[in-house]
């Protein structure tokens, strides 16, 4: 059956402009660079680099930024048949402030923004049925209309035997209340086969900073077959059946910002699942998966933005070879 699927991964969610700092002008004003952004399309762009076929479901404004984003996503190799243009609401903007250690603060211009205007009836269910994996996050669940569209898409995936991948991608400023955020993350956890969750999100959901314990709680509560916990400068872990595997990060002198690191990791992990399946993963296999995903994530931290500058498989293998 899998051989007949047109797409390896279809993702639904936000596509926006990340304004990132890029030096100061002669007058001392910060210069902001308009980078194509949005976690789902970053994931797809990396998968395209690894030779996979992808499609995106989402909405942008019918404005200059929206048209630029559509062009960039298409150029990255993703099918944009189900990228909808909104004539009334502008493309969502995010302003990213980078801290000295490379971590980030976000300010969103999204009240409303086009990405949250996607409606259930605009979702092309054929795209999802024709995919091996469906991927989503919670930015498409912050508001009622797009939440309904997201849940509909998840239902289509589940009914058609499509693996469901979830990255909570918690952005606190976008939620009316953190109780809403928790509820939507819980919904995602109850539906996914593959979970990629960051250390701070594990703590948010379980109340413990013991990530081993937190991951066990999530796996037991929701019956998730495969859980990845990303730990930033501490590397990453995978939990699968009786296995718990940890791999150190690739720390680089040239790290400038962490935008897209989690998305690059996610894509590398999904790429491995596409090639090896979810049924018979081994400890060695998971080590290889995490090593490759950590290396990919490490490379993206040395570049501004994400979608346009995803690493190639050769670059990732090259970085791994340096450690060997």
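-> sequence recovered:
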């Amino acid at each position: 059956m899998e051989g007949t699927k047109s797409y390896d991964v279809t993702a639904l969610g936000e596509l926006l402009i990340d304004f990132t700092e890029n030096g100061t002008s002669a007058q001392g004003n910060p210069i902001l660079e308009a980078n194509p952004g949005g976690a789902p399309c970053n994931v797809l762009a990396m998968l395209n680099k690894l030779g996979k076929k992808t499609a995106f479901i989402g909405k942008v404004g019918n404005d200059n930024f929206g048209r630029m984003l559509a062009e960039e996503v298409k150029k990255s190799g993703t099918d944009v048949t189900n990228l909808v243009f909104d004539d009334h609401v502008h493309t969502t903007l995010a302003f990213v402030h980078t801290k000295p250690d490379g971590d980030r603060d976000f300010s969103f211009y999204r009240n409303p923004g086009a990405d949250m205007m996607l409606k259930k009836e605009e979702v092309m269910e054929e795209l999802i049925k024709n995919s091996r994996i469906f991927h989503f996050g919670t930015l498409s669940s912050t508001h009622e209309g797009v939440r309904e569209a997201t849940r509909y898409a998840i239902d289509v995936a589940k009914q058609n035997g499509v693996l469901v991948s979830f990255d909570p991608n918690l952005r606190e400023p976008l939620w009316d209340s953190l109780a809403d955020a928790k509820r939507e993350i819980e919904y995602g956890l109850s539906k996914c086969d593959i979970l990629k969750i960051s250390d701070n999100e594990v703590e948010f959901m379980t109340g413990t900073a013991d990530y081993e314990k937190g991951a066990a709680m999530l796996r037991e509560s929701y019956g998730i077959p495969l859980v990845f916990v990303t730990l930033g400068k501490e590397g990453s872990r995978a939990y699968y059946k009786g296995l718990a595997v940890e791999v150190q990060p690739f720390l680089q002198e040239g790290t400038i910002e962490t935008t897209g690191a989690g998305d690059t990791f996610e894509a590398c992990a999904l790429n491995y699942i596409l090639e090896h399946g979810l049924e018979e993963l081994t400890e060695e296999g998971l080590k290889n998966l995490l090593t490759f995903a950590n290396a990919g994530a490490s490379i993206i931290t040395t570049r501004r933005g994400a979608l346009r500058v995803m690493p190639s498989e050769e670059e990732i293998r090259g970085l791994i070879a340096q450690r060997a």
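DSSP finds ten helices and 13 strands in the chain.
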